[in-house]
Structure formats: structure tokens, C-alpha cells
Specification:
The protein is α/β, with parallel strands linked by helices. The chain contains 15 helices and 12 strands.
């Protein structure tokens, strides 16, 4: 994205008196919000859980807060009804597939380059030029290596070494542990999540978290450990289900557990890079799905898998998400296999 676009975004941020930020519930979405909020020091954050989509009903939060601007961060779907009902300027920063809406300021690197992969936290960092540790956490957490990583290494020695690939950083470094912390504190009840987010707006150095050197850092670490224990148990169960047969590795777990499909799918594809990993959480008659692959583009296959199926989904070339009715899950898997000829 050109410098004038970053300048325009900065102007929108600086002139907002009561901004409201809607952000996705993953490290990239969280980091994007933290970067903008910590710069502006005004506004309200609203995490969008369960489904990465803003619908008309979400607009009531704009009115309740008396917001004068809306910032939408890392959400691939925003209904026109939300934009119309908000009745204030909507600034939407995203990096998923380009969509067209009216009466919105839309910023997406894929508009200029359909193959661009620039997480929203990378864009936000280029806007505010501060809190590089938060930006690095968000970008690497979205499986991407930013151009500012050498600067991060210099300013935060010991957080990464010679690792140069996202998976190496995620599973072998202190920065990777920080990504896990960001991901885990987003799990659970929204009220608890937003308490953690509020505390993160006040953290000055990542050592506060990883070394638990301040009360704020200890608070975040405590929430991380609680959810990490659930994750480790589910990961052990998933590994037990692994089989050498077939290209697909499918793991399904019940909805009374935390929403950990994306986290599990990421580690499973790291462990089994020759597979296509599908992790599904069964809840309220629906299957909430995360799909990961290495070297095989799956976004087009997902589109075909959803044909004639009650559900929706989308994502990137090698990382997608979907939500389908439980009764259609078998058909979904069959059509996904057929579309990839596996």
C-alpha cells in the first residue's frame, strides 16, 4: 500500500473523537486493535467472536457508544445493512478476498494485487509506527513475515533467533509464545476476553507477560495458562486420531470446549505438513471449521465444497474457515475431497 493510504488512515484515526473498533478474534485482529487504540488513546473495542462477520444488528453498539467513526479490522465480511445502519463513517481495513460495498472507506492490499498477503496488523503498524512488538505478534500470528522483523529483532533481542519461516518462529521462539498468549486470552467468555484486552492496552514491554514481571503481565499469563491447558489436552486427543491413510486429516471435537479450531489446525499442519488438516468444533447443530494446507491452495476447493450445503466460509489460499450445518458436514467433506481430487 502506498504512503498516501497510510497517511489517509492516520488522518481518519486522529480526527476520530469517539471511535469504535470492531476486530476479529485472532492475534492479527487483536494486534490491529491494540496498535490503533494505543496510538489514539480513545475509543471502544468490540471483539467479533463465533463468526467473522458484521451484521446489521452489530450497528446498535455504534449508537450505544455514540461513536463518530467505525473502524473494522481484519473482518472479511461486513453486511451493507451494518454500514447503512451505523450512520457514521465506516473505515474497513482488511486483507481477505476483496468485496464491494457502498458508503465505506475500504482499504485492502488485494485491490491492487490479488495475490498480496499483508495482515491488517502490518497495515496498522505502518499507520502508527509504534509498538513493533505488538505488530510482530499479529503479523507472524497470521503466518506471515513482515519487512520490519529485523528491526524487531534488534529492539527485542532474544525473542527470535535465526528462524526465518513463520512456523519456525511460532513453535520455537519467545515471539511464538507471545502469539500463543494473544490467541489464548481471546478464548472464553467475551467479558473475560475484554478484561484481558484492556490490560494489554497498558502493557509496555512483552517481558511483563513472558516473565510475569508486573501485575498486568501476571494477569495476562494467568488467563493464558488456563486456556493453554485445555488446548494441550485437545492437541493430545487430535494426535491420537492421526492416521497415515488419505490426504485429509480430520479432527472433530465437541462444542463444550473452547473455540480452538484455528490454533489446533495450525499446529497440526506444522506436525503433518503432507496432510490437509480440517479441525471442526460441533456446537448447536453446526460445525465450525478451520482448514490448513501446505503447498496446496484450498480456497477454491472450499467454494466448491460449500455448493448445495447450508453454510458459508472463505479465507486465504492455504488457510480457510467455514461454518456448515452438522447434517451437511459429510457432504461438505466429500465435495472438498472431490474438488481437490484426493
Amino acid at each position: 500500500m502506498q504512503a498516501k493510504i497510510y497517511k489517509k488512515l492516520l488522518s481518519e484515526l486522529e480526527t476520530a473523537k469517539r471511535p469504535i473498533f470492531f476486530f476479529d478474534d485472532d492475534p492479527d485482529g487483536l494486534a490491529s486493535f491494540l496498535l490503533l487504540y494505543r496510538y489514539r488513546k480513545e475509543g471502544k473495542g468490540v471483539i467479533i467472536k463465533s463468526t467473522p462477520r458484521l451484521v446489521e444488528e452489530n450497528a446498535r453498539k455504534v449508537e450505544e457508544y455514540s461513536a463518530d467513526k467505525v473502524f473494522v479490522l481484519d473482518l472479511p465480511l461486513v453486511d451493507q445493512g451494518f454500514i447503512d445502519k451505523a450512520r457514521v463513517p465506516v473505515i474497513w481495513i482488511d486483507h481477505h478476498q476483496v468485496v464491494k460495498r457502498e458508503n465505506v472507506l475500504y482499504f485492502n492490499p488485494r485491490e491492487d494485487n490479488p495475490d498480496a498477503y499483508v495482515p491488517v496488523s502490518w497495515i496498522a503498524y505502518n499507520v502508527v509506527n509504534q509498538d513493533i512488538w505488538i505488530a510482530a505478534t499479529g503479523v507472524v500470528g497470521d503466518f506471515c513475515i513482515p519487512d520490519f522483523l529485523p528491526k524487531f529483532k534488534q529492539e527485542y533481542p532474544g525473542y527470535i533467533g535465526s528462524e526465518s519461516e513463520p512456523e519456525e518462529i511460532l513453535f520455537n521462539t519467545k515471539l511464538g509464545k507471545l502469539v500463543s498468549v494473544f490467541s489464548m486470552v481471546l478464548k472464553g467468555r467475551t467479558k473475560e476476553v475484554m478484561q484481558c484486552v484492556k490490560v494489554l492496552t497498558r502493557i509496555k514491554h512483552p517481558d511483563e507477560i513472558l516473565k510475569q514481571s508486573t501485575p498486568q503481565g501476571k494477569f495476562i499469563w494467568r488467563h493464558y495458562l488456563k486456556h493453554w491447558a485445555v488446548y494441550e489436552k485437545l492437541l493430545r486427543e487430535a494426535v491420537k486420531h492421526y492416521t497415515h491413510h488419505g490426504k485429509l486429516f480430520v479432527f472433530v471435537y465437541p462444542g463444550d470446549k473452547l473455540s480452538l479450531t484455528a490454533d489446533l489446525a495450525l499446529e497440526l499442519i506444522y506436525r503433518y505438513p503432507h496432510k490437509i488438516v480440517i479441525v471442526a468444533r460441533e456446537k448447536n447443530g453446526e460445525m465450525k471449521i478451520s482448514i490448513r494446507a501446505r503447498g496446496i491452495k484450498i480456497n477454491k476447493a472450499l467454494e466448491k465444497a460449500l455448493e448445495g450445503v447450508e453454510g458459508y466460509g472463505g479465507g486465504h489460499e492455504y488457510a480457510c474457515g467455514a461454518n456448515v450445518k452438522k447434517g451437511d458436514f459429510k457432504r461438505f467433506l466429500e465435495q472438498f475431497r472431490e474438488s481437490l481430487n484426493i
